[in-house]
């Protein structure tokens, strides 16, 4: 049959297809298809790109098969001619097969295009920040899992079970730092690998440009040539269907070819909104690791690390104060250190609690934690290994008496209760006993360093 007949047949098919898809889908995905030939039960059409071919096969293969069988005849096979290079008109021919996997597709005859040349020159700028490495990333309970998996990936990209690695958590908890560190490690252990960090925002901009300039094929080929792809803030793809669709094909291609994918998001894949289900399903294939809010120990560790790195000299008391009050965000902790440094240099004052208070109150709302007598009783009992009933009893051995005195002193310092109500709640004692207890504790703190440290430790636990 001649091309003309193929044309007629295709026009009949288009009429059926038009009734089954939206107008936009029709003009985007079906009008660009060019009927070429119908011979020996094989209907050959030309499609503009490999991506186009994949999309058609993935999304419309059933509709196409049904339509072609109806309009052309049962047993007709569909053959695609994929246009590889628009300027030279080079193409490759691929049969329609819904079982054809993308990795098989990419084993198709080698194509001559600009990116084939690029593959021989493996080095691209990975866009990694050298400061964000594993040496500067402090480990804590909130990031242990993600960090451990990250090190493993850095050493063996693409070959661990953590593929993709999906790191999620609130803003400022260290997601970007960690994924850069993985990229740096991967590059160090495998210098020939093509590692690339890209933010979701930049990826989106590049994709939009590619659509505008009619270079989506090049865009796809480039991303499909990466060995370790790090995509930051994937939640920003929400509602961007074209970008998601393109990323879906890149993801499939890389994953099926044993390449490493590392993604970050502000929430877990389970609660990601505005993203296609087929993408979310893929995000769950590897490891989803949360980086939660840093605990006190990690906050302190990071502060000490930064202080040491900046060559500063800051008292533990000041470090504890900052770590106690700046709780949510590591970026804020860094901000406080920078402010302290600036204040101290400009005013020529030492970095003390007063200065720290100023710097911290610029970053967070410092509202003192409300402490109750019950909490104080619990913490003191736990510290000395006593039962609450023992503290509230009439028994007077030395250990119990000391614990009661400390609890009374702390209740006086940290609550607004009167002396008599403190006495009432700590063993039904009168206000004179509480007054005496406060004096004893104060006096002992003045002369006994160890005792003072013990009270400080209990206070820290109360405020934690
Ligand atoms: N464990 C850590 N050790 C040392 N520095 C850290 C750690 N976690 C985070 N930081 C530092 O905190 C700052 C904020 O971290 P990062 O940008 O990685 O957060 P994020 O979770 O990606 O935030 P966002 O979602 O807002 O992009 C960075 O300067 C980073 O170096």
TrEMBL record:
Q: Which residues form the signal peptide?
A: none
What are the AAA+ ATPase domain coordinates in residue numbering?
Answer: 161-292
Region annotated Domain II sits at: 87-126
GO CC, sorted alphabetically, is:
cytoplasm; plasma membrane
Q: Where is this region: Domain IV, binds dsDNA?
A: 345-464
Gene3D superfamilies from the UniProt entry: 1.10.1750.10, 1.10.8.60, 3.30.300.180, P-loop containing nucleotide triphosphate hydrolases (3.40.50.300)
Entry's InterPro entries?
Answer: AAA+_ATPase, Chromosome_initiator_DnaA, Chromosome_initiator_DnaA-like, Chromosome_initiator_DnaA_CS, DnaA_C, DnaA_dom, DnaA_N_dom, DnaA_N_sf
Task: Please give the residue ranges the record annotates as the region Domain I, interacts with DnaA modulators.
Answer: 1-87
Q: Where is ATP bound in this sequence?
A: 172, 174-176
The record, for SMART domains, names: AAA, Bac_DnaA_C
Molecular function terms, GO-annotated: ATP binding; DNA replication origin binding; lipid binding
Outline the extent of the Chromosomal replication initiator DnaA C-terminal domain: 372-441
Annotated localization:
Cytoplasm
Name the GO terms of the biological process aspect: DNA replication initiation; regulation of DNA replication
- Name the SUPFAM superfamilies on file: P-loop containing nucleoside triphosphate hydrolases, TrpR-like
Source organism superkingdom: Bacteria
What keywords does the record list, in alphabetical order? ATP-binding, Cytoplasm, DNA replication, DNA-binding, Lipid-binding, Nucleotide-binding
Q: What is said about the domains?
A: Domain I is involved in oligomerization and binding regulators, domain II is flexibile and of varying length in different bacteria, domain III forms the AAA+ region, while domain IV binds dsDNA.
Q: How does it assemble?
A: Oligomerizes as a right-handed, spiral filament on DNA at oriC.
Question: Could you say which protein family the record assigns here?
Answer: Belongs to the DnaA family.
Summarize the protein's role. Plays an essential role in the initiation and regulation of chromosomal replication. ATP-DnaA binds to the origin of replication (oriC) to initiate formation of the DNA replication initiation complex once per cell cycle. Binds the DnaA box (a 9 base pair repeat at the origin) and separates the double-stranded (ds)DNA. Forms a right-handed helical filament on oriC DNA; dsDNA binds to the exterior of the filament while single-stranded (ss)DNA is stabiized in the filament's interior.
Q: What is the protein name given in its UniProt record? A: Chromosomal replication initiator protein DnaA
The gene that this protein is the product of is: dnaA
């Amino acid at each position: 049959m001649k091309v003309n007949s193929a044309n007629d047949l295709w026009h009949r098919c288009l009429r059926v297809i038009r009734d089954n898809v939206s107008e936009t889908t029709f003009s985007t995905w079906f009008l660009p298809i060019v009927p070429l030939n119908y011979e020996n039960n094989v209907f050959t059409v030309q499609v503009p790109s490999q991506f186009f071919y994949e999309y058609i096969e993935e999304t419309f293969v059933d509709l196409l098969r049904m339509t072609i069988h109806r309009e052309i005849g049962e047993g007709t096979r569909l053959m695609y001619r994929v246009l590889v290079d628009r300027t030279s008109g080079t193409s490759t021919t691929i049969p329609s097969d819904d079982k054809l996997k993308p990795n098989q597709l990419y084993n198709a005859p080698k194509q001559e295009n600009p990116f084939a040349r690029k593959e021989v020159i493996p080095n691209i700028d990975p866009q990694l920040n050298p400061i964000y490495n594993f040496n500067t990333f402090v480990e804590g309970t909130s990031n242990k899992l993600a960090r451990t998996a990250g090190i493993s990936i850095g050493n063996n990209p693409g070959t661990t079970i953590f593929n993709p690695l999906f790191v999620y958590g609130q803003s400022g908890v260290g997601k970007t730092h960690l994924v850069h560190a993985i990229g740096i490690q991967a590059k160090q252990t495998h210098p020939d690998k093509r590692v690339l960090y890209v933010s979701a925002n930049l990826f989106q901009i590049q994709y939009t440009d590619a659509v505008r300039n009619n270079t989506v094929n090049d865009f796809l080929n480039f991303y499909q040539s990466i060995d370790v792809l790090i995509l930051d803030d994937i939640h920003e793809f929400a509602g961007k269907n074209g970008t998601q669709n393109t990323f879906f094909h890149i993801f499939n291609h890389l994953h099926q070819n044993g390449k490493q994918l590392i993604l970050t998001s502000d929430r877990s894949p389970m609660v990601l909104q505005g993203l296609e289900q087929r993408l979310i399903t893929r995000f769950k294939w590897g490891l989803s690791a949360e980086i939660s809010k840093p605990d006190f120990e990690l906050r302190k560790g990071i502060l000490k690390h930064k202080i040491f790195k900046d060559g500063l000299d800051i008292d533990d008391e000041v470090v504890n104060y900052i770590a106690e009050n700046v709780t949510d965000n590591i970026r804020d902790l860094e901000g406080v250190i920078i402010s302290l440094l600036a204040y101290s240099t400009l005013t020529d004052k030492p970095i003390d609690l007063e200065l720290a208070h100023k710097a911290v109150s610029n970053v967070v709302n410092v509202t003192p934690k409300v402490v109750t007598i019950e909490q104080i009783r619990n913490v003191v009992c736990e510290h000395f290994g006593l039962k609450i009933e023992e503290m509230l009893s009439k028994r007077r051995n030395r250990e119990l008496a000391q614990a009661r005195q400390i609890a009374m002193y702390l209740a006086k310092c940290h609550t607004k209760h009167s002396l008599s109500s403190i006495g009432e709640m700590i063993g039904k004692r009168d206000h004179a006993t509480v007054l005496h207890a406060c004096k004893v504790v104060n006096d002992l703190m003045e002369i006994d360093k160890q005792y003072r440290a013990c009270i400080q430790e209990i206070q820290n636990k109360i405020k934690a």
